[in-house]
Design a protein that fits this description.
15% strand; binds iron/sulfur cluster; binds FE2/S2 (inorganic) cluster; 8 strands; six-stranded mixed sheet; alpha/beta
Length: 259
């Protein structure tokens, strides 16, 4: 029988309310998704009143302030705090991005913070990226050279090096893949924009000797052609990259390659 309601334990409940204790007149309400699988309880939204007079400018600063001063139980990933490692990717004010580079001033009203969409959640704001990293591994993201005689640096022309621009900067934060409707529904088969951009990065690397094999590997109805050029991925990328274009380039190469 078709189930038309969400299962009881998937419903997000209203959570705890943490009232300001500083007496600040400059407060913002921050609503944070909370879920701890070990409790067996439903996910909930906790609300924190945060003193903005003593808070630096980014969403990550708010989370750090909550963790350090209000509620140490909150879980999220972060490392570099400079938009380099990709670990703090989450959904803020309805948009995917990096908490360490997203200014809270860009969000009007209450600030809603959720994990990246359509991922299983490990805890609170930590999405489960195991599947995405398995897919990343599947495209073998390392230089492949069959020449046993290579003992020194492989020289690239400036033109060949320039082909990597727009691809090498990807930090695998997954903001693009988790904003892609095709990936939401088919993430077990479709590689998604983050992994396909990485595949492209190795396909166009002039030093790599497995170009044909790499192309053949992604030439698949489900792995590649589930991209319907919706472009959510490109608008979600916090590094200003264009994974949709890279996917289109792979499709173009396949159309002309003899594979
Ligand atoms: S362009 Fe392709 S990869 Fe990007 S959001 Fe659309 S379907 Fe997904
Ligand atoms: S393309 Fe952009 S959004 Fe996607 S994983 Fe790379 S850096 Fe993140
Ligand atoms: S903490 Fe490294 S990108 Fe945000």
């Amino acid at each position: 029988m078709v189930q038309i309601n969400l299962p009881e334990n998937s419903q997000v409940k209203k959570g705890k309310y943490f009232k300001d204790k500083t007496g600040s007149l400059n407060l913002r309400k921050v609503n944070v998704y909370r879920w701890d699988p070990s409790t067996g309880e439903n996910p909930r939204i906790d609300t924190y009143e945060v003193d903005m007079d003593n808070c630096p400018s980014k969403i990550l600063d708010i989370l750090n302030k909550i963790k350090n001063e209000i509620d140490p139980t909150i879980a999220y990933r972060r490392s570099c705090a400079h938009g380099v490692c990709g670990s703090c990717a989450m959904n803020m004010g309805g948009k995917n991005g990096l908490a360490c580079t997203k200014p809270h001033a860009e969000i009007d009203g209450d600030i809603d913070i959720y994990p990246l969409p359509h991922l299983k959640v490990k805890k609170d704001l930590i999405g489960d990226l195991d599947g995405l990293y398995k897919q990343y591994e599947s495209i073998e993201p390392w230089l492949k050279s069959n020449s046993e005689s290579v003992t020194q640096e492989i020289i690239q022309s400036k033109e060949d090096r320039a082909k990597l621009d727009g691809a090498y900067e990807c930090i695998m934060c997954a903001c693009c893949s988790t904003s892609c409707p095709s990936y939401w529904w088919n993430s077990d088969k479709y590689l998604g924009p983050a992994v396909l951009l990485q595949a492209y990065r190795w396909i166009v690397d002039s030093r790599d000797e497995e170009r044909q094999a790499r192309l053949k590997k992604v030439a698949d109805e489900l792995k590649l052609y589930r991209c319907h050029t919706i472009l959510n991925c490109t608008s979600a990328c916090p590094k200003g990259l264009n994974p949709a274009k890279a996917i289109a380039e792979i499709k173009k190469m396949l159309a002309t390659a003899n594979i």
